[in-house]
Amino acid sequence: MPRSKVKLAYISNDSARRTTFRKRESGLIKKAEEITTLCGVEACAILYSPYSPEPNVWPCPLDAQRVISRFRNMAPPEQNRKMVDQQSFARQRLEKTTEKATKLRTENQHNEMTQVMYQCLSGRLGFECLSIGDLYYLSGLVSQNLRVIDRRLEFFQRHYSG
Amino acid sequence: MPRSKVKLAYISNDSARRTTFRKRESGLIKKAEEITTLCGVEACAILYSPYSPEPNVWPCPLDAQRVISRFRNMAPPEQNRKMVDQQSFARQRLEKTTEKATKLRTENQHNEMTQVMYQCLSGRLGFECLSIGDLYYLSGLVSQNLRVIDRRLEFFQRHYSG
DNA sequence: AAATCTATATATAAACT
DNA sequence: TAGTTTATATATAGATT
User: Fold this and answer.
1) Which is more confident, B18 or B105?
2) Which residues does chain A have within 8 Å of residue B84's beta carbon, measured at their own beta carbons?
3) Selection from B143, B140, B124 nearest residue B55 by Cα
4) Residues near B122 by Cβ (< 8 Å), separated by ≥ 6?
5) Predicted TM-score of the model (pTM)
């Protein structure tokens, strides 16, 4: 935006595009860091680019060990699930309810769990990183999802193939 | 930053913190949109806050339908896996190799798949959204991960319990 | 509480090294 | 190609409504 105002469109010049990407990538991460610090919220930014073999995942890779150790001490998110369900029925006073739910969610580190699960299942984090407790928990979670998927497939088979 | 320079630390005043969050949240999303457009890259930003029941997931929720329909036509990411493995052996000319891999990854929409998988498994997107083809694919992926987890658990049992 | 308005801090495009 | 500089566009803190 400085020196000259740039049109918001794909930059066709390769080196200019790359330069812009590098500058703006660091700018975006900086902004993410700031909002996190200033507002005490959790944020995550993922940038895929042709300039790096891995996506730039902020703040996850550097923080992975901390996230994993939190995950290890976490209980199954049962109460959390219930809380979320309650929300969908009570749309009045949404924010108050939500604030409570978010606090609960933060307390029991559901976010960290889903991040770690995501990273493991998508191959970005090796299962070797997980403790035996993590693995039991993850095994249960994955099995549960598999059952849901299977039920859904049976539903399709009953309705569309018979 | 305007009017006065603000110290980069948690804002303890509730309403000030909320106001700052709202302003910066939109700023961050705008920046993410810009880098995406200008540089032709894929990016994703997730913001958890106590002010909204769901995390602000950009650009995923609005784009979910498009992402899902891409996912439906996707082949298993076998070639992609191989490509990524090759990379870890060939650290010379990293960027050239990476550029190819990224293009492949973009072409076969691996990113979209992992996003959708993440959303489904973490409960943010109902399995009802998926076609029968998606479900078969996801079922295979989840089963595969379950086998890896089980092997890992057996490893622990052999080494630490017997 | 949310929207609008400024003055100022910050981000960044282009130039230069 | 990457780092540094600088002029300008943008983002945003605080004030106001």
Assistant:
1) B18
2) 53
3) B124
4) A114, A117, A118
5) 0.51
